[in-house]
Amino acid sequence: MTPPLATIAVVPRERFSIAPQSLLSILDANAGAELVYVDAGSPPLVRQFLEQRAVRHDFRLISTERFLSPNAARNVALKQVRTKYMALVDNDVLVSPGWLERLVECAELTGAWVVGPIVCSGQSPSERIKTAGGSAEIVDENGRRLLKARCRHHGKLIDDVSSSLRREPVGQVPFHAVLIRMEAFERVGDFDEQLLSTAQHTDFCLRVQAEGGTVYLEPASHVTHVPPPPFEDVDLEYFQLRWSDAWNRSSIEHFRRKWNLADDDPSLAAMAERLDVHRRLTLEPYRRMLRLLGPGPARWVENLIIAPWEQAASRRRYPQRGAPDRRAA
To answer: Is 132 exposed, middle or buried (CB count within 10 Å of its CB: 0-12, 13-18, 19+)?
Structure first.
């Protein structure tokens, strides 16, 4: 029997309630790859499900009693990989049949160090694109080093842009699902654990290209990220830590210093704003009540009262800016 070329490594992204559905999609689509699953602080029922599936399908389950940042979990999985490639998958992603085979085929034919699929977004296998790769580069403008990064085709249907989708080098691909050549780690090192919440894939892809490696988009491979809301109670603790003000600001500042970016880089300011907005998704039930006031008053209350209160609450609850040490609920 031919040994597998890839090991699938599943890690937590921001919540746990989608994890069973995600794992089943991976098991259904798996064509013989090895599987390592990092379970970092899953609630009891999810952990029980993972343990049962690990026995039934004979994959490696690594459990911790505390939450881990995604990059910390990726490094735990990395130590277990003995194959030519590592295929990372977030625990809230649904994969499609053939997704891994197409990524491996691309890497084998092109020599790419990193290969990403089309990532769609929805509550089930979707055709609406979240990202089809993107650009990422550091540029000098008037003596200032700035990050220029963007994703491609966000919000569009695959059929509407299919003529422009092709296998090609790109600046970055997200870590929702990604194939990485293990030799790349010998050149760029492990995943940066000081990036607790953001810029993780951008940083890694920049490092790969700085060492002469290539990043490719493989449009024949599709996965679907299942975004919140809704949230289940078991999701809230990790989600609020994962996107806490402390983790977000610490990550952005570390990324800025690491790449020697300008203090006032507008892309980093926009990144911080997006992260704050994302964390406040947990407030959706209150937003629905605010909408009864009408669009204008609802925005006023959100911007001047709710948002500052929520940010202050995050700072009080999660004051630490260093490595994660919160215990699992």
So the answer is: buried
